[in-house]
Write a structure and sequence with these properties.
about 180 residues; globular
Length: about 180
């Protein structure tokens, strides 16, 4: 992911956390093996950080989001993967990099669509870590993916993005 000149707090969040060691690997594993969207994984975490639940209904009803993903992003990614497999051996690294930049630009556009949907997401009183797990599980369920085999990745992703469990524990002294 690369910086954008447009103000988009979700994009900024994604850039910051995707660069955290381990985050990209987990996200790409979930993308490649569970067929989940990196953008929606990050969106679920971003919403949790802001105290909002992930409501999958508006995401599923967004025709613009569906078209962006199905008609542009996924075919572009597939072409880039194909280029990586065959084109790089054919001496076409510039074409591969151009395709990668185009894919990132489409992901940025998709994040703008998600940002618009964020305003309608319900507020929650749950702690960010609990909400993050609930949001991610809601996404897995909506995508028809059993989350149980991925619990380790889910927990690690939450740790990396929202901080380790111990960092979020506060002790209150009774004054005794």
């Amino acid at each position: 992911m690369k910086p954008s000149s447009e103000q988009n707090p979700f994009w900024d969040f994604s850039l910051r956390h995707y660069a955290t060691p381990g985050v990209a690997g987990i996200c790409l594993t979930l993308q490649d093996k569970a067929e989940l969207s990196v953008n929606i994984l990050l969106f679920a975490l971003w919403l949790a950080e802001r105290g909002r639940e992930l409501d999958m209904i508006p995401l599923k009803q967004s025709e613009a989001l569906r078209q962006c993903n199905e008609q542009v992003l996924l075919p572009l990614r597939s072409a880039r993967y194909g280029m990586k497999r065959i084109g790089m051996s054919m001496g076409q690294p510039k074409l591969y990099l151009t395709m990668k930049k185009a894919e990132l630009e489409v992901e940025r556009i998709e994040q703008k669509l998600l940002l618009r949907l964020a305003q309608g997401m319900p507020e929650s009183k749950l702690a960010a870590r609990v909400l993050a797990k609930a949001n991610l599980i809601a996404y897995f369920n909506a995508a028809g993916v059993d989350f149980q085999p991925w619990l380790g990745e889910i927990e690690r992703l939450i740790d990396l993005v929202l901080g380790e469990k111990d960092n979020n524990v506060f002790y209150i002294s009774s004054g005794e």
